Amino acid sequence: MPIPRAAAPDLTLGFLAEGYDFVRERCAQYGSDAFEARLMGTKTVFCVGEDAAQMFYEPGRFTRRGALPTFALKLLQDEGSVATLDGEAHRVRKALFMSFMAPERIDPLARASADGLRERLATWHDGAALHDILREVLCRAACEWVGVPATEDELEAYTHETSAMIDEAGSFGPANWIARVRRNRAEARLRDLVAAARSGESPFFEGSPAAAVVAHRGADGAPLDEAVCAVELLNLIRPIVAVARFVTFAALALHRHPGHAAAIRAAEGGAARRFVEEVRRTTPFFPVVAGRVRTPFTWRERDFAQGEMVVLDLYGTDRDPRLYADPARFDPDRHLGRTPTPFDLVPQGGGDHFTGHRCAGEWLTIAIMQSLVEVLAHASWRVPEQDLTVDLRKMPALPKSGLVLADVAPVR
């Protein structure tokens, strides 16, 4: 079936108005898993589903360069990051990031995150929002794990700066500009640390990801310049802080489906991991991913030329009824005995972790989520009356209240 075209001249306003549901609902209207329209004046093919993900993540087929709007690029990745590279340059840089993702390297971060949350639960003040506390806990754990030294004031600054980058990644205008200023401040501190390391000082402990970034040489054999080192160090810290969103939705799921907490506490055959996977599937995290064609190809009877824009709906793929029966229902047991393919569970992208643009930190995200979900399942807490509305027009989304907890005790 040929890919249908939207009648409207440009769907940018529709995308902003409808948010996470935009691509999936439009595809349903057209009776297709893809449609063509203009986005910000650019001819774009929007698509959803496992087959679309397989098309999108074919190695070497797309580049991220020129695909992400500047207002998002400057907050989420910035120039010179691994996400902006292709070919051998990308392979070599991605290998550096994947070297941090071995279980023996991830586990200490997951444990530190869990310990940090337990400490905060023990001193909880009623009225505190879980999402805010999680960001503080995860920023501290991230800086320690990456190997970035920070005073208490600097940790507070990194928390506010990375939070602004995440919160405003889908916005434009003054709020986005302020978040960019905050990112620039964080990068400036990190550049100073990189310069100190290269001048013979030792701000980064041996064997840390930070030390590895400073020592890394690219595909051309040259070390990364100080600005790119700072970008990549921040791109290690920021995504860890972003896991706070997933864990907030996990806590909301524990509140709404309390029966799952008992299975997690009992450590019943992978209950925590299944719960985490279902939270990842249902959480409005990354809405879409965009790419420009590098190598021309044909799909759905359409020829895709070099430079054309394609947008894959990640949120919609994870809620595709062809993949998940009754996809709106929260059901961790749907993952029982099921191994995801690289293209049917894509909250952090699809394809291969090592050779493609799938999020390098996905395994780290799962480990942190599982450790924190176990802490929350063993704790005692209450959700008082509050506004838990999730506005799917806001990208990234979050319960409006941030999930305020009361009567908190670290162990039930």
UniProtKB/TrEMBL annotation:
Protein name: Cytochrome P450
Pfam families according to UniProt: p450 (PF00067)
Top-level taxon of origin: Bacteria
Annotated family: Belongs to the cytochrome P450 family.
Source organism (scientific name): Salinarimonas ramus
GO molecular function annotation: heme binding; iron ion binding; monooxygenase activity; oxidoreductase activity, acting on paired donors, with incorporation or reduction of molecular oxygen
Gene: cypC
Cofactor(s) the record lists: heme
